[in-house]
């Protein structure tokens, strides 16, 4: 059965909210959500102390093909880096930045991967 786009968006929003709550319980502060540009979308932008964190939230109903965390491949990473560059051009900061991934499995397990990848161009 195919899911409609609306259901997929609602599911994504639910998981992004769960990821946000998970990170806030660990001391991060919310900055922005769903920052879109031509290069892509940043699911969450958070502050971890003096660091600006770009967070990619991934959900997979199955661990098949490596699961949620494995779905952030080099191509996706490049899009996130480009989107973060655009975000920073609109919201300049002197803060160091990093890229994290929050992977959520079908059973509700949340895996927070700090420094999931380097933001330097490949």
Automatic annotation (TrEMBL):
Xref: InterPro entries: Restrct_endonuc-II-like, tRNA_endonuc-like_dom_sf, UPF0102_YraN-like
Gene3D superfamilies for the chain: 3.40.1350.10
Parts of the chain that traverse the membrane: none
Similarity comment: Belongs to the UPF0102 family.
PANTHER family per UniProt: UPF0102 PROTEIN YRAN (PTHR34039)
HAMAP family attached to this UniProt entry: UPF0102 (MF_00048)
Protein's recorded name: UPF0102 protein CKO31_17810
